[in-house]
Batch of 4 targets.
Target 1
Amino acid sequence: MEYRGSQFYDREEQFARYTARRGSAENANDTLEEPIIWEMSGDVKDFSILDVGCGDARFGWKLLQAGAKHYTGLEGSQNMYGLAVRTLQEVPSQSKVIHTTIEDWTQAQNPKEASSYDLVVSRLVLHYIEDLESIFNQIYEVMKPGGRFIFSVEHPVITSTLQPTGLRTDWVVDQYFVPGYRTQDWMGGPVMKFHRTVEDYFQAGRSAGFQVVNLRESKPVRERFIHQETYERRQRIPLFLFMELRKPAT
Ligand SMILES: C[S@@+](CC[C@H](N)C(=O)[O-])C[C@H]1O[C@@H](n2cnc3c(N)ncnc32)[C@H](O)[C@@H]1O
């Protein structure tokens, strides 16, 4: 059996390995991904924020500490949802976690949610999703005019040819212009990730009506690494792609 999206995180062995990896020194999320998300987010004071695929919602906690007014997380995995509820239990009036797949949330069309968020974030989730168009349209709907949508994904040079995890010394980029699901042996189990090109992400944003205002890659910064060797390894290939989209003000 192959596992898509949040199903993967509800397999106990993979969930344990993923959470252990996230806690390890010099992990890619803390050294390469999160710093750029913060740089792109800027000042979040008084913002209402939606996090699409929030995981354990630790980012939500940090956003509230940084002055955000309210945080809503959407999460499809029961295991992750449980962690997220625990992370935010001390701030119930400022936070909400909804246990839903992103696809179901997209279909639900809650009119009360329309134009309600200053910032929507989605970190390392959209490469699990096939129908990007519907999700981008729904995110556009729920954002305030002038609001921003910031997301990170596994970089398309990585998702083109998914290789087993481990300390890699070489990479393959192949079938780059062939979109679709690929299966990877990841954290000791199979998972399906949806490959699309950099241009596909860019055009999906424009088709939904967004202005694409920023694009980043996970260029490493020496100070964020303990070991020179890890820093040099991270200079070889981009692991993550980031985009910032804006809903026009009028
Ligand atoms: C790599 S984790 C990232 C979690 C969090 N955004 C972070 O950066 O710490 C991916 C998360 O996306 C969730 N996810 C993946 N596909 C999903 C879907 N279709 N609907 C809801 N959640 C999904 C998974 O359950 C998992 O928590």
Note: Residues 5-6, 9, 53-55, 75-77, 80, 101-103, 123-125, 128-129 surround S-adenosylmethionine (CB under 6 Å).
Target 2
Amino acid sequence: MTRVGIVGAGNVAARHADVLSGFPDVTIAGIADTDPHRAEALASKHGSPAYGGHADLLSAGGLDAVYVCVPPFAHGNPEHDVLSCNLPLFVEKPLSLDLQTAEKIATEIERRSLPSAVGHHWRYLDIVEQARDLLSGRPVRLALGHWLDKVPPVGWWLKREMSGGQIVEQAVHVLDLARLLVGEVEMVHAVPAGDSVDGEVDRATSAVMRFAGGASGLLATSCLLTRKHRVGLEVCAEGIALELSETRLLVDGERAIEDDGRAKTRVDREFINAVQGRAADVRVPYGEALRTHRVALALARSATERRPVTLHD
Ligand SMILES: NC(=O)c1ccc[n+]([C@@H]2O[C@H](COP(=O)([O-])OP(=O)(O)OC[C@H]3O[C@@H](n4cnc5c(N)ncnc54)[C@H](O)[C@@H]3O)[C@@H](O)[C@H]2O)c1
């Protein structure tokens, strides 16, 4: 039995706990949250002990891996303490608010040669694999990313210094997909709508991106809406246009292919396989997510500083 601890007991932790509980070879060994009521509520659902913080969870011992499912502002200490115990680490996106925190964690994971994974489950969509096949031999020349949505119902999200803003917190999924289908990003220029409230995230941003392979890209984000309106990535290559959402691939505006809906299970299963030392298809280990995080942070910086930002390798 693989014994997993979970740090953070909010929405995404509940999802991982449900998926992990469905695996016959995994036990939720403990759940920690700085809000003891939340820890208790999720832990009791899974018959696990609850802890008031990650340090208590780690001190209790007996873990094989830890999921860190905290909001953006809370990353850093939990990961370092997990790594100090030499435990494999699954981290929810975004990795952190700044680059330094994530770079230090990446260095430590590498130094200890520990399995890691990040919650970029879009990489496990079966329609993403089909999109890659359709694009084989046809380099993408244009990418159009969107995240046009409502404000998520979590208290910290609208505060810039807690969430990092919509690009870092949400559109990072689309940026990760763009890196996969188009390639590395070398320049970004983001322009926020000029009506942001002091200390709060931008309600709308548009951005231009240049990819290292020469492709051109656009990204549009907004949280002004009352529901999810358009979230995904469109790409154009010689003679083909693909439109990807989390559920559907549209080919040339006509042929729709539905996803099999198993990405959120695969992302956990492959990490557990890696923890168990079995053949594992972990598509976004921490170091790979760090490359996407750099793009998101460059866009956020460009929007704040009102100037293009170049990414260096
Ligand atoms: N990959 C995905 O599809 C996906 C989906 C939802 C959320 N997320 C990400 O997961 C993260 C959490 O989102 P959420 O919706 O679960 O938020 P949430 O607010 O519902 O839950 C976060 C929990 O973390 C707890 N917490 C805060 N600091 C902590 C700390 N230092 N130690 C332990 N617990 C701490 C909070 O008390 C809260 O219960 C966000 O970064 C979000 O982007 C990813």
Note: The CA atoms of residues 22 and 65 lie 17 Å apart.
Target 3
Amino acid sequence: MLNVRSVRVKRSRSYAGGVDFPYSRLRRRPDVEAENLQAHDATDLLLVDRALSLGVEGPEIVVIGDEYGAVTLPLTAAGLRGIRVHQDLATGRRALALNAADLGLEGFEPHELGAALLSGARLVLLQLPKSLAELEEIADAVARWAAPDVLLVAGGRVKHMTLAQNEVLARSFGRVQAERAERKSRLIVAAEPREVPVEPPFPVEQRHGDFVISAHGGAFAGAKLDIGTRVLLDVLGEMDTAAADAVVDLGCGTGALAVSYALAHTDARVIATDRSAAAVASARATAVANGVADRVAVMHDDAASDLADASVDLVLLNPPFHLGTSVHTGAATRLFEAAARILRPGGELLTVFNSSLGYRAEMTRLVGPTDQLHRTPKFTVARSIRR
Ligand SMILES: C[S@@+](CC[C@H](N)C(=O)[O-])C[C@H]1O[C@@H](n2cnc3c(N)ncnc32)[C@H](O)[C@@H]1O
């Protein structure tokens, strides 16, 4: 258990609490929309309320992890201009831009995680990420680049929060205080950034046989090789895919599939694409670490939307089945649809999935005839031929 002292927060005298903002007008598109999936939650409201109560100027505020704009846009609507924003997902970036346009709001600045985002920041509002590694990378970045008197206010749903998050924050901050839960959400306030190591903690590297994986904090499976990915690579190693000129690693994560393919086929050019900026940065670092950066192009994009229809011979896919913290198969469906769109007739989709998910019927419907190539007790590898 951490021994923390209370962080004193100076509240603006003029702020009376509560924000009048049309949260229900926020939408998630192009991310999956469904009745049980919201574009805002109670944590967003707590973060906005806290920011307004502190009376910090817009250019000194940074918002990280705002999913669809439910933190940035209420603050912008309250007259704060020049807020800097970092969102990992291409879908979130697009949703924020669309929601801002719908509401006629402007005056915030998108940035990648780095010095331009954080320099001089005195208040950082963070929707706590899912993984501790992602939190560690963000906490280090805030301690490294923000102002010495910065307050990091991190919020999450109580059911997803753990003491380990406080411990990770305490590695980068001298004072970490978890507050009382409100509406099933809780804020943690961190202050007094510690001195940081010369080298940032990410990306980290791990060797797997003949290749290396390089990973930023937010990338799927970190620098490990996911078991499903390993199964797909084994099947791929047995196949003759020499005729494939245009190959896409769809939802590339750290780029393990793209880079392995490029290493095994020395003439191949591969496109690795993911909606997560952390994944994209990792895939680029993985390509560099394995000496194939000239043949692996990495794109930050939602469901390969920048790739032309019927332009690809082979798609490699290890689809997600979690959407944020809720289990929703819509995320995988979106990628099957994307594969069907970008594959030329006769092109192939190779997919690995947890056998219990029974994706085969959906892949047959969306892409074309689908065969099981391999099955382990846990995973199935299937090939769909684009009809
Ligand atoms: C199960 S991981 C697989 C990562 C990598 N291919 C591997 O095998 O290690 C699924 C990946 O799909 C990405 N993803 C999910 N939805 C996406 C979308 N709509 N567009 C692009 N990428 C997406 C996630 O960010 C994640 O990196």
Note: The two ends are 58 Å apart (CA to CA).
Target 4
Amino acid sequence: MLYPTPIAKLIDSYSKLPGIGIKTATRLAFYTIGMSDEDVNDFAKNLLSAKRELTYCSQCGNLTDEDPCAICADESRDRTTILIVEDSRDVSAMENIQEYHGLYHVLQGLISPMNGIGPDDINLKSLISRLMESDVTEVIIATNATADGEATAMYISRVLKPAGIKVTRLARGLAVGADIEYADELTLLRAIQNRTEL
Ligand SMILES: [Zn+2]
């Protein structure tokens, strides 16, 4: 089906989103055209400001609109513990259960030998330099229980242990392959309370 260029372009943009096939992209494009001018304006503005105003915290790598992020800047947080997660969505999931009061380190990815992603390709170097000049005594690894999550946890543990830092991993309450982001609060709460030393 040949559409006028502006619609074809819009369909093309939508189809670049994850999980959106050409059929859904076409439906969304036609829906957008039917929206009010005001709603379309807001939508476009929100897309641009999300992209322009967000940055990564220079300390922990969390997505933020101010640097350092609100968590790193919060003097009341426990600075002896760092919880390592794959991305910012995991930080939100952890913050929601209000059980953890230390700092975070966001890897923005995982080591994935299968996909050729090594330690230098994720936000890991800054963790090492961060630990050198800090009072951190425990690092909790909270990567998902997937092959890549495990590979990343093993690597970090191997690097940090000789430095005399206690390295723990979230307990096995989380099912293999489960996403921390989608874990229910009770499961997450148990996982952090029953963490085990690596
Ligand atoms: Zn931060």
Note: The chain is about 45% helix and 15% strand.
